[in-house]
Amino acid sequence: MHIAVLAKVVPDYEVPAGDFELVGGRAHSRYTRMIGLYDENAIETGVQLKEKYGATLSVISYGKTEDVSLLRKAVAMGGDTLNLVIGESDDPYVIAANLKMAVEKLGNVDLILAGQQSADMDRGIVHSILAEMLGYSFLPKIAFIEFDQGGWKVRQIHENGSRELEFKGKGVLSITSIPENVPRIPAVRSIFAAKKKPVDKMEGILGAPMNVEELSVQIPRMESVCEFLPMEDVGQTAKLLLAKLREGRYL
Amino acid sequence: MIRIPYWNISYGILIDAFALPAMAVLIYGLYGHWKKIRQGKLRLKSALADMPGKIGPVYVPALITKGILGSKIYRKLFTGIAHGALFWGMGALAVGTTLVFLNVLFKIPVFEGAFNRWFMSFFLDLSGLAALAGLLFFLLRRLSPPERLVKPKERPGFVPPVCLLGAVILTGFLIEAFRIAANGPEPHAFVGNFIAGFLPAGNAVAHRALWWSHGLLSLAFIAYIPFSPLVHIFLVPVNTALASPLPGTRMGVIDFSSFDSEDAGEMPALGCAKLADFTQKRLLDYDSCLWCGRCHEVCPAASTGKPLSPKGVMVTLAEKLAAGGFDDEGLIDAVGENAIFACTTCTACMEACPACINQPKTILKFRQNLVMEQSRIPELMGKAMNSLEQRQHPFFGTGAGPKDWSKGLEVPVFEPGESQYLLWIGCAVTYEERAQKIARAMVKILEAAGVSYGILEESRCTGDPAKQMGNEFLFSELAKTNIEEFNEMGVKKIITLCPHCYNSFSRHYPPLGGTYEITPHAVFIQQLISARKLKLSAGGETISYHDPCYLGRRNRFLDEPRSVIDAIGKRIEMPRSGMESFCCGGGGGNYWAEEEGTRINQARSKEALDTGADRIATACPFCLLMITDGSKKFTEAQKAFDIAELVAEQF
Amino acid sequence: MKSLIIEIIDPKRIGELVTAGRIFGGAPDILAIGKGGIPGAYGKAYQADELVAANIVDVAAELIQREGYEVILLSATTVGAEIAGRLSVALKAPVISEIIGIAADMTVKRPLYGGKAVAQYKINKFPVVLTIRRKYFEPAVLEGTTPAVSLGAGGAGITFVSEEEIKTEGIPLEDADIIISGGRGIGAKENFTMLREMAGIVNAAVGASRGAVDEGWAAPTMQIGQTGNIVAPSVYFAVGISGASQHLAGIANAKCVVAINKDEEANIFKRARFGIVADYKTVLPALTKALKEEQ
């Protein structure tokens, strides 16, 4: 069984809003870079499947060469190979085309896992585009995966609960975060072992971006003056709050 | 009546012949302990700090004061006096017995004159009484023991040797009394003379029986020592001789370069998971432990209902050692992962231990294994560690940017070759909004005093949280980055705002290649005051000072912060202060922890607030944050402040 | 603009997409997924009797090309995520997801960086596939129903096995006018009872931040935030929630935020209208009591 997991290195997703700066419509380069949060959930899921079914786990990423040292964490967590397609596009079709190239180069990939959405562009769209380009099935927001009698059984989380679905053949699944796929901390041994695992770097292709024009990227101004209520007498405070809420016609 | 040795005893010299097998058993028993201890790893030379009086691996001053004089035992006065009475009483009696032996062999005149009266009779009688009194204290205490002796477990095996020794002393007195009853009073032998008054005269048979009983009981006692808790007579002095007197732990440097090699077998095991992973010195620690529970009493985790008890850890290890379970991999789980991570690394346990056992080092070794080998760490702590790895600071979820603390302030940047001091801000002060004020206050103070200083452009962490959580690898990576930068910039002197930073720089950075002159900010302020660079006026406010563990107990800076407080207000001490200061609960990575039981910081805050002081001063950002949070349970008012903040109010 | 809504039969979700579609001009048609009457009046209505949204992609693409639809409207939900990317490739069309703002000149806005930035795009090519974020558009009133043309079955690519609905205790989040939400500061699963108690009195819904859900104290369906539910209540009580930007993205349209948090420096206070710096365990019972008295 050969599983591939897609990982993207993004600027620190926990930069506080007060410190957030844009340069050229994108996050300032001073922010530390790291693998996205949902991607780590996907990697963890991949490693668990590898351990359960003895599969090979390949890590695929589209991005900069400098990010290899960060992507090694995915290998340290349990990935077998690291495959980086070098490129800088933000366009989902271009990214998907490049990832498709890496998948096809690996050959015989049975399942592709991806984080639900990236922590910078927040689109959650590249994986499904990739699936259609490859002709694989696609399901988003997956929590549990099992391989049973030649087919995949998955649990999908949606707004009202969850559902169990099955499909045969190859698929792309986007992974949502649950307590069971909290990413593991790699052991020091694994971190060192990861440095010795093979890294395949490929030149990216230009691809065909979609016809959408980015007009602007701005930081919205948050305006709110918070009225702090006194806390001497909690009973009084409660009544005061309710009074103010009624005054403002909120309640 | 001059006393004749072996009076009434025929073939008395036989008892000395019996001494030989007794000694053999003693040595055999001690050898059994050595056989267990030597299963540990060899100790690294680097673990031994160089100090005056150190000869080879032996710290001679410590051996004398803590090992032989037992200075730490006296911290509990009554126990100390009882133990002293027993120990020195028996010591004197042993000397006396030896002198009798020498008199028999070499005719040394001990039974003559003033020496006989004052030493052989009076002083030895007194010693016997003292020893008996001490013994009774310990025996009777076991009938209703203080909690520390029984929680979490009581050490078995004290009663037989104590009773044996008691019998030895009593028979000793009876022999004297019977001898005196037969031969008349001996000058100054007040106990013997007294008891003889109750005895029938001339009972030679009783005397002989008692004499042989006493001899055999004594030899039995000696032979029994290594099989009973009294083996501490030998083990504890050895342990104190070999224990580094430096407060706190060092953990040593792991050479991670061996991990780069191709051979997986070359990579050393990280941390300790089973008994065989520990060094011989650690195994000696476990064997020496008397389960006295003083560490348990002072432990902030144990006293607030956490699963951790330093005594409990030692007990588990001692039992494992006694059972010979050197390769038992279940050791860590027997101690308990939760217990291991509940430790705040305050080292109060180590400070209280009369046997100079290093409990924190053992706990941290377990942590290293859990984190670096097994990837086991409590979730919140893991998040902090992850954040430290990804963004070089552990304060995940912070709302502060790296330059927020200095908004509106003109703070000079460190100029290589020009700035005298590097003001190291540290991660807690940078990313925690309450703590940012410490830096602002210190900048004000440095400006007012005209100090030549500068900060780094980029804020960073020393790596201390990683080390405390057990991740030596992450620590060494962060440290090396910092050291490289410091060396490049020619940094020589550093002022720290956080004792954890101070501790990292002064203790852990030198073995990694970074040696600088570090001063904690409270100490620096005191130096400025002494040099008259700061004019302060003492207000009428009462201020209570909370000693941060990493400043006070672990690095012995107790007086300097107090001088500063005396210069600005009236100092009130808390019940537990100075070297006995009670931890705020933020150390050991436990700033990022969901606590069980009572919250440590609330316990300490209550203690501080109960002094009635107007303000609570501290000298560590973690302490400040923990006490500020802990006080919220008891009062609305903001009472906790850093020393720098209090001083800066005057500018 | 010839627009087509593709959605499950849920009046609120459909209503929001109708509003969004109208901004582009004209009235959207609808392709409903699932069984049942289709609420609202449409020029054309289609229906695919299918439980799994993924299975209708090919059929939908064929319909769109045949009828020449220009704008395809989906909600930014699991269903929308299942369809959007694949459909756009099948149509060789651009796709823009998580839209929070629409203008008639074919410009749309969407958040980046967890909501810290907002990007604006101009659509130049049609058809275009859009997914619209919940609660950013007022749901249009849907009157009556429209009979639908049944679409042939798509491939049975994905088999539906079973459904598990999480019984939301009380009001579902999206309909609630008042939401009481708990974060990491709640401390334990049991403590959510306090929030439920207060919610019960005013018919409020109970939500949770990602922190509380990750801890296992609340079901994922209760999660509010950029990657959970987007809500727009009149009053939002943020209890023990620090206010990370991803959470704030979920309450961007809440009218009045009341924050209760022990930490006065917590980020939530920058968004809140009213703030109480205290342990929620002292505040909530008092609020509950005051609310009971008012009834």
Description:
- The complex is a heterotrimer of chains A (251), B (651) and C (295).
- Chain A is of the alpha/beta class.
- Helices cover 29% and strands 32% of the residues of chain A.
- Chain A contains six helices and 15 strands.
- Chain A has a nine-stranded mixed β-sheet, with helices on both faces. A two-stranded antiparallel sheet of chain A has the order 2-5.
- In chain A, a hairpin with a 2-residue loop joins strand 9 (137-148) and strand 10 (151-158).
- Chain A is globular.
- Chain B has helices at residues 14-37, 60-68, 77-106, 113-141, 147-150, 159-183, 190-196, 204-224, 232-242, 280-288, 294-298, 310-323, 331-335, 337-341, 348-352, 359-373, 379-391, 427-431, 433-449, 464-469, 472-489, 499-508, 521-530, 559-568, 600-609, 621-631, 643-648, and strands at residues 54-55, 58-59, 421-424, 453-454, 493-496, 517-520, 542-546, 570-572, 615-618, 640-642.
- In chain B, helix 3 crosses helix 4 (113-141), helix 6 packs antiparallel against helix 8 (204-224) and helix 9 (232-242) crosses helix 10 (280-288).
- The model of chain B has no long low-confidence stretch (mean pLDDT 91).
- Chain C is an alpha/beta fold.
- Chain C has helices at residues 11-23, 57-67, 78-91, 192-202, 210-214, 245-250, 280-294, and strands spanning 3-8, 29-33, 38-39, 45-48, 71-75, 95-99, 101-103, 107-112, 117-123, 128-132, 145-146, 149-150, 159-165, 178-182, 205-208, 235-239, 256-260, 274-276.
- Chain C has a seven-stranded parallel β-sheet with strand order 6-10-5-1-2-4-12, sandwiched between helices. Chain C has a five-stranded parallel β-sheet with strand order 15-14-16-17-18.
- The termini of chain C are far apart.
- The chains are: A alpha/beta (251), B mainly alpha (651), C alpha/beta (295).
